[in-house]
Write a structure and sequence with these properties.
alpha/beta, 11 helices, about 350 residues, globular
Length: about 350
């Protein structure tokens, strides 16, 4: 546990749900943990006891990427933890593959002619996922490679690998359900007789939806508030002049109004309390990184690729490099939008930033 984590509290200690099983973290709320084939090696999913249209059953929150191992784990959960009841709906916090990848499979698996198992998600993320599953947006292909090249990534091998990843998103999200139910900020969803309030977040995903239950004092935070790592906040080729870091920092402040003892159920890491302190930690983290970037740009034009060793003190594989490049651009853009940096594009087509 690092020094920042020590300022948080973990009510379950080091207890984790075993693969293919669930662990109750609050009345009617069960935790599932599934493996991911990345450096970030797991995702937390949630089962909420529910009643919908007079039927008893469960709501699933988030799904994991499409892979046989995840399907097998879900089948174990179905056999061991549903008490003979069906999945009634699939609620997805946002469009990233580890959250929506198996939504199509789950909805098909549990739909009947009389009772469709519907996907519930924000409209922006639904449409972004539909588009990305049919093409490539920000995760690979020629457009992504050119975007990273324009921000200083010069390694031919890395650029070629990015070009070759044109099917990166569809490989993990091969399909998205044809229909959905829209979630909106401030909307109240009744799950198992309890009120869950939708809280929108921006910067990490287009229209991320977290869920807060006042009765239970539980926040399903998705990726907006994580206990151990800072959420990835990136600029992508599809929206090359965005300012996601400002949006993210404004979004996490939306959670300050929640009670200090709220139990946070994050998508990665362990359930924790200490939400207000974690929000402060995230602000402090990005404030420090922005100061480092500003200082590094003070002695001449610097690219986003130049900022990688400034922002990330560890070796990065290709998967991590693409996220790191997006996050590097995000920090430069935050300072550029504030007027503290100016940017220029030279004859080589590369954007460089320096102190204004």
């Amino acid at each position: 546990m690092n020094a920042l984590e020590a300022q948080l509290q973990y009510p379950l200690g080091d207890t984790l749900p075993a693969p293919g099983t669930t662990l109750e973290v609050a009345p009617g709320v069960r935790w599932i943990r599934m493996a991911l084939p990345f450096a970030l090696d797991h995702i937390n999913l949630w089962l909420l006891r529910d009643e919908l249209d007079g039927r008893q059953g469960w709501t699933v929150v988030d799904c994991c990427i499409t892979r046989d191992e995840a399907k097998a784990q879900w089948e174990q959960v179905f056999a061991s933890s549903l008490e003979g009841l069906p999945i009634l709906r699939v609620l997805v916090t946002h469009m990233h593959p580890d959250h929506i990848g198996l939504a199509h499979w789950l909805c098909e698996r549990w739909s009947t002619p009389d009772h469709p198992c519907r996907l519930w998600i924000s409209a922006t993320d639904y449409n972004a996922a539909r588009m990305a599953s049919q093409s490539t947006t920000g995760f690979g292909g020629e457009a992504a490679a050119e975007f990273f090249r324009s921000h200083g990534l010069a390694d031919p091998g890395a650029l070629e690998k990015i070009r070759a990843r044109a099917s990166y998103y569809p490989g993990m999200v091969p399909a998205v359900p044809r229909t959905f139910r829209r979630l909106l900020d401030g909307q109240v969803v009744r799950i198992g007789g309890r009120i869950w309030e939708c809280i929108v977040g921006h910067g990490h995903a287009p229209e991320h939806i977290a869920l807060f239950c006042p009765e239970l004092g539980v926040l399903v935070s998705g990726d907006m508030v994580l206990p151990r790592i800072s959420t990835n906040v990136s600029v992508y080729d599809i929206e090359p002049e965005s300012n996601p870091l400002q949006l993210f920092l404004e979004s996490i402040d939306r959670f300050r109004r929640l009670p200090a003892d709220t139990l946070v159920l994050p998508s990665h890491g362990k359930p924790f309390t200490g939400l207000h302190r974690r929000i402060e930690q995230l602000h402090e983290h990005h404030r420090d990184r922005l100061a480092e970037v500003l200082e590094a740009c003070g002695s001449g034009g610097r690219t986003a690729a130049d900022m990688l060793p400034v922002l990330f003190k560890r070796p990065l594989d290709l998967h991590q490099t693409t996220f790191a490049m997006g996050e590097s651009v995000a920090h430069l853009h935050a300072l550029w939008f504030e007027g503290r940096l100016r940017r220029t594009r030279a004859a080589d087509g590369v954007w460089r930033f320096q102190a204004a």
